[in-house]
């Protein structure tokens, strides 16, 4: 059986950046707290926890004067303010491309646009973006299952500006933007990050020339789930977090298997999956 790994798979620039920050801090010893899971990969997070990283779910849980790292997809404004009051040191792991979405959204508000965020309102990144915008000046649409702007939304607004969750698919962004065509002034910042684009496009290309796709990454990772839904529209696909979840019968009669991985999947987990498939 031939196994082909997608050209772009695994750690993206923002995740690699925060992973290096955590490694550096853990190597120094001392206590390090993380507000929320720093990346959406349970295997890597478990490994860091064993080496001393302590997870907290709210900024208020941080002990006075402690050192804390902020996750790649940022934290809401209120949480950041609490961290500023309590932390001895804040290490900002927020990906610069996520910061750029905040900046674009702020620019839109300052210039009189009603902001549409295309994305999942329960995702930490979108929650962060919402927290920096004034109430009544923005709306969030996921682009899924008819969650898109309707006619009255369009009728009531003359200036609309759009930003997208960095890990959104092109298709969902198009679902949100298309009904807005007709608004007098429509400004779209395509803030889907280039790393997401690369991974989605190379997964799509690979899925079209294999018999089966294996998508590797956290079940809590939004970008991994998007890769999985893109692949399964093209070819039979399975989503696993690690090599242990692979099932032998998936591979019966398959000649070529493609492997892709979400932006928070470490290289060693991808390598382990490839090794196991080859051994079947
Ligand atoms: S997916 Fe893009 S925006 Fe998100 S952490 Fe990675 S590089 Fe940054």
Characteristic key phrases:
Cobalt-precorrin-4 Transmethylase, domain 1, 3 domains, 12 strands, 280 residues, single chain, 4-stranded parallel β-sheet, binds iron/sulfur cluster
Question: What does this protein structure show overall?
Answer:
- This protein is α/β, with parallel strands linked by helices and 280 residues long.
- It folds into three domains: 2-10 and 195-279, 4-hydroxy-3-methylbut-2-enyl diphosphate reductase, catalytic domain (Cobalt-precorrin-4 Transmethylase, domain 1, 3-Layer(aba) Sandwich), CATH 3.40.1010.20; 13-94, Rossmann fold (3-Layer(aba) Sandwich), CATH 3.40.50; 97-192, Cobalt-precorrin-4 Transmethylase, domain 1 (3-Layer(aba) Sandwich), CATH 3.40.1010.20.
- Helices cover 40% and strands 19% of the residues.
- The chain has ten helices and twelve strands.
- A four-stranded parallel β-sheet has the order 1-12-10-11, with helices on both faces.
- Helix 8 (194-207) packs parallel to helix 9.
- It is flat and about 60 Å long.
- The site of iron/sulfur cluster (SF4) has 15 residues, from helix 1, helix 4 and helix 8.
CATH homologous superfamily name of the largest domain?
4-hydroxy-3-methylbut-2-enyl diphosphate reductase, catalytic domain
| Total of DSSP H or I helical runs spanning 4+ residues | 10
Average predicted confidence as pLDDT:
95
What is the H/E string?
Answer: EHEHEEHEHEHEHEHEHEHEEH
């Amino acid at each position: 059986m031939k196994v082909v790994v997608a050209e772009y798979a695994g750690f993206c620039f923002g995740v690699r950046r925060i992973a290096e920050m955590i490694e550096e801090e853990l190597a120094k010893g001392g206590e390090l707290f993380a507000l929320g899971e720093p990346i959406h990969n349970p295997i890597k997070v478990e490994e860091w926890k064993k080496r001393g990283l302590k997870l907290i779910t709210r900024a208020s849980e941080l002990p006075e004067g402690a050192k804390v790292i902020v996750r790649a997809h940022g934290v809401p404004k209120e949480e950041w303010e609490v961290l500023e009051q309590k932390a001895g040191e804040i290490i900002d792991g927020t990906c610069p491309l996520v910061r750029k979405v905040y900046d674009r959204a702020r620019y839109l508000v300052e210039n009189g646009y009603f902001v549409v965020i295309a994305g999942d309102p329960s995702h930490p990144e979108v929650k962060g973006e919402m927290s920096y915008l004034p109430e009544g000046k923005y709306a969030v649409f996921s682009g899924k299952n008819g969650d898109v702007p309707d006619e009255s939304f369009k009728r009531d607004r003359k200036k609309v500006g759009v930003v997208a969750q960095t890990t959104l698919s092109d298709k969902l962004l198009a679902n949100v933007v298309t009904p807005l065509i007709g608004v007098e002034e429509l400004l779209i910042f395509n803030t889907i990050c280039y790393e997401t684009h690369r991974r989605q496009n190379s997964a799509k290309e690979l899925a079209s020339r294999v018999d089966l796709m294996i998508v590797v990454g956290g079940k809590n990772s939004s970008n991994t789930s998007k890769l999985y839904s893109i692949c399964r529209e093209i070819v039979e696909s399975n989503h696993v977090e690690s090599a242990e979840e692979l099932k032998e019968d998936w591979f019966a009669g398959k000649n070529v298997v493609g492997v892709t991985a979400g932006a928070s999947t470490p290289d060693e987990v991808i390598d382990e999956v490839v090794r196991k498939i080859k051994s079947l």
